[in-house]
Amino acid sequence: MSPYSRRAFLTAAGIGLLAGCAGGDRADRADRAASTTPSAPLPSVTPPAGAARPLERSAPVALRIPAIGVDTPVVRLGLQADGSVEVPAVTADDRAGWYRYSPTPGQTGPSVLLGHVTVGKYGDGVFRRLDRLRPGDGITARLENGITAEFAVTAVRTVGKKEFPTTDVYGNVARPELRLITCGGPLTGDEYRDNVIVFAVLTPAGER
Questions:
Q1: What is the pTM (predicted TM-score) of this model?
Q2: I want to staple 150 with a disulfide (CB 3.0 to 4.6 A). Which of 71, 108, 177, 206 is the partner?
Q3: Which homologous superfamily is 3-36+58-207 in?
Q4: What pLDDT is stored for residue 196 in this prediction?
Q5: 38's torsion region: left (phi>0), alpha (psi -120 to 50) or beta?
Q6: pLDDT given at position 49
Q7: pLDDT score of 46
């Protein structure tokens, strides 16, 4: 596991993942999703045959998902003073955010990006239609070094926040993968019940 993915995993395992999800006028409040602390280190793994060649570390600056009309700049997210994961600011110009303690898109390991499903009085969030993605849909991340990393969706999961799959999201993988996270499911009061998680893998022709 790279130092970036290991730190991301241990951080998430210890404090849970935040994804900006609240509805109505309280969209600036993020909800803590439950997580499970691993009982033992994850084993090293071997890249599968035919896996795409990993890219050099370079932070993402833009994200495009044509199937759901997403074309957004990407901001960097870290940790708040209380140790919780930051979420993008709630603004009319909503943006996705990359969790900087995860690998960059195209590096070996799971690169994690978060986005709002709604942004209060401003309406829909950048990841409002994330649950409409299907396996095979394309995701493109433009990096600071000018390279564009291309991914293909492998799975879309909606899970209750109390069952947030920390290992599946942050755990060790042997190829470059992507995780996109927002909230979903029914809205009860000001809170969404679930998280929507998109899993994607760098395509063999994933650099241009």
A1: 0.81
A2: 206
A3: Sortase (2.40.260.10)
A4: 95
A5: beta
A6: 56
A7: 53
* Distance (Å) of CA 59 to CA 25, 70, 189: 32, 19, 36
CB atoms within 10 A of CB 136: 9
Query: Cα(94)–Cα(73) distance, rounded to whole angstroms?
Result: 9
Mean per-residue pLDDT of the chain: 80
Spell out the long-range contacts of 75-79 with Cβ–Cβ below 8 A and sequence spacing 24 or more: 76/100, 77/114, 79/11
Give the whole-angstrom CA distance, residue 176 versus residue 183: 24
- Contacts of residue 48, defined as CB under 8 A and 6 or more positions apart, other chains included, come to 174, 175
In whole angstroms, how large is the CA radius of gyration of the chain? 16
Residue bearing tokens 């570390």: 57
Q: 99 vs 66, 78, 102, 113, CA distance in Å?
A: 22, 6, 6, 6
CA 41 to chain centre: 22
In which element (H, E) is residue 8 found? helix 3-15
Enumerate residue ranges in the chain where pLDDT < 50: 1-6, 9-10, 13-20, 22-45
Calculate ∠ Cα 60-1-57, nearest 5°. 25
- Buried-exposed string 3-21: b where 16+ CB fall within 10 A, e elsewhere: ebbbebbbbbbebbbbbbb
- Where exactly are the structural domains of the chain? 3-36+58-207
